[in-house]
Amino acid sequence: MADLETAAMAAPSAQASVATLNWAPFALVPRGEKSDPPRSIDTTDGVADRLRAAAFAEVQARDAFLWAADTFAETDPELRGAWRMLARAEQKHLDWLLVRLGELGFDIRARRVSDQLWVSLTSCKTAREFALYMASAEERGRKAGERFHASLQARDPVTAEIFRKIAEEEVEHIALARRFFPDEAPLAHA
């Protein structure tokens, strides 16, 4: 349980260099490799795999929003402020997922995850590129959350509801990119 309690704060600060990242207590695959494949969502281990992967995606998104707000200092201050606000929303989602992992007794380190989302987001060269890439990632996460909600609703309504709430909130995250880059950002389908 101590691992879950400290997981949210153990991820690197937005100021950390990519070379010195510490994603403890998550277990990572070597850079460039794929995460351990998720097991069937029809099993408790498969549910844990999705909670764990979603939690790590939230960590990476949180830190990437903070990184972008600091890195793209020339961009609209309103957009940078919104990114900081979204980092807090990602933290809230992370907390929900970690609490649920703990309630179910799952080990956060039982399967390895990949930091490819972080690598991709922090390789963006402009605020526009970052916002559009993040919106695309958020849309993929939103769709996955909806699928997990539908798959889990009958047998694990608590976990299903967490995924539903996160998916619902991702619509607002995607809308932010659309507001600043209206002709390029993906549309979220609520």
Protein model, in words:
This protein is mainly α. Helix content is 64%, strand content 0%. The chain is built from six helices and no strands. The chain has helices at residues 2-10, 44-71, 77-103, 116-122, 127-152, 157-180. It is globular. The model is unreliable at 4-19 (pLDDT under 50).
Task: Using brief descriptors, characterize the structure shown.
190 residues; mainly alpha; 64% helix
Please give the number of β-strands.
0
What fraction, in percent, of the residue positions are helical? 55-70%
Compute the CA-based radius of gyration.
Answer: 16 Å
Per DSSP, the total helix count is: 6
Secondary structure blueprint with pairings:
Layout lengths: L1 H9 L33 H28 L5 H27 L12 H7 L4 H26 L4 H24 L10
Brief description of this entry?
With 190 residues, the chain is mostly helical.
